[in-house]
Amino acid sequence: MNSTVVSYLAQFESFKTFMESLNTMAGFNTFPLISLLIFVATAAVLTLILATIGGYGTYAERKISADLQARVGPNRVGPYGLLQPLADAVKLLTKEDIFPANADKFLFYLAPFLAVLGVFATVAVLPVSSGLALSNLNVGVFYVIAISSLVGVGVFLGGYASNSKWSMLGGMRGASQIISYEIPITISILAITLLSGGMSFEKIISNQGGLPNEWFLFHNPFTFLGFFIFFVAGLAETNRAPFDLPEAESELVSGYHTEYTGMRFALFALAEYVEVFVLCAVASALFLGGYHLPVPKEVASKLPPLALQAGEVSVFFIKALVLYYVVIWVRWTLPRIRVDRLMSICWKYLTPIAIFNLVGVSIWMVVFDGKSLIEIIFHH
Description:
Elements: H1 5-9, H2 13-26, H3 31-68, H4 84-94, H5 105-120, H6 140-161, H7 165-196, H8 201-206, H9 221-237, H10 249-252, H11 262-287, H12 297-301, H13 305-331, H14 339-367, H15 373-378
Helix pairs in contact: 3-4, 3-11, 4-11, 5-6, 5-11, 6-7, 7-9, 7-14, 9-11, 9-14, 11-13
């Protein structure tokens, strides 16, 4: 795997020839400038893709929920209602931007942008394919955990700055929920970093393969259980049902974003749906082999570079979107739980089990020399 999109391109003779001719024409080394332009263009494309997924996440939510409940869902705006997200965007852009009289103006306006920033900043280390990455940080997983915490800050500030009882309750719920559920998520990720020997997505994915028996999900019983701990805690981290207590429209009107209108409300919604996709992408990278094609590595290495990259990008999005479907499926299947039970699940069950898994993985690596359960069964 190559560290960044630039280092991937730099291995091809055609790119080297292009850079040499460009340097000759310009009379100076243009590589830093071209690298910057490539990074900016790649970041813009990935951000646009994430924004599109976030926008059409609302469409998927309504269509899948309608299907589960034997309804139709959006079907008027465009074929099968496919243009409904665009209609929603126009509506939200043209709606009046209302500011509560006694709200904290600066924090009120800052909150939705913090939520969006915390999600879209993860683009920097998102492992889309072996040749399409902006950065290969040696602490990439730690970076995702840290930068996504801005979403929790945005949720809390949105509730706090609105000067509304409903918003304040939603903001406090969101802060306590997000801070609490980060603990089982982080411990579950630590187990994977033990197996892979590093915190970079490159290291984690390279230690897996494309076939299910090569995924960390099936490496040992502790990682299998750890995936479900990570996924359930991720639902709470992203405020998804049955853990959507910060919104809880039946209790808090709309929760932390009750006082927001127009595009400021849309930014919170966009942050939520994009964060769900990022959660699914990270889960697939940690446990499901990431972007590896479902063939032996020897076969994949013989594919033409363009075909390999197209296949890896497709596999990356397919895995993430399948998990995305499961997230929506869970929302329309399980009822919302009480807030006290929400915290009990985290502190009494998920966190102790995550610690047990971490210790179990450590012992497994020592006793079985890091071999997977499948290797132990079939190689003996």
